[in-house]
Amino acid sequence: EVQLVESGGGLVQAGGSLRLSCAASGFTFDDYAIGWFRQAPGKEREGVSCISSSDGRTVYADSVKGRFTISSDNAKNTVYLQMNSLKPEDTAVYYCAADVSIAGLEAPDYWGQGTQVTVSS
Q: What are phi and psi of 51, to 5 degrees?
């Protein structure tokens, strides 16, 4: 059974920080890539960042470069998204997803249920 469970969302003031976690189970974690996506009301889902668990390669959207950091703890089968200098524009439901490669995250095989991030001005 493949399962991805996000946690760590909440309400934070602009300029603050949150750390999201994605706990994975049911597949060989270090053979997969994990990505973070977000969707705000009325907008399309967009990719935020992703990481290859096997070699540590990372990719970031331009809108979050320098503010967000993705990391992977293979021993815990968990991927983190450290979000600093948060802006109201970052408000969205954040989802983690998994596929066998970063390229596969164009259309991920597996999704978590999402966690709400709200940034107040």
A: -145, 140
Residue 65 sits at φ, ψ, to 5 deg, of -60, 135
Structure confidence by residue, pLDDT tens digits, 85-117: 999 999 999 999 999 988 999 999 999 999 999
CB atoms within 10 A of CB 51: 24
Are the C-beta atoms of 7 and 113 separated by less than 8 Å? no
Query: What digits encode the pLDDT tens for the residues 54-77?
Result: 889 999 999 999 999 999 998 999
105: helix, coil or strand? helix
C-beta of residue 120 within 8 angstroms of C-beta of residue 18: no
Among residues 92, 102, 43, 42, the alpha carbon closest in space to that of 70 is found at 102
Distances (CA, A) of 62 to 1, 27, 116: 34, 30, 21
Find tokens 């890539």 and name the residue: 33
Q: Distance between CA 21 and CA 96 in Å, rounded?
A: 9
Contacts (Cβ under 8 Å, ≥6 apart) of 15 = 85, 86
Are the C-beta atoms of 30 and 54 separated by less than 8 Å? yes
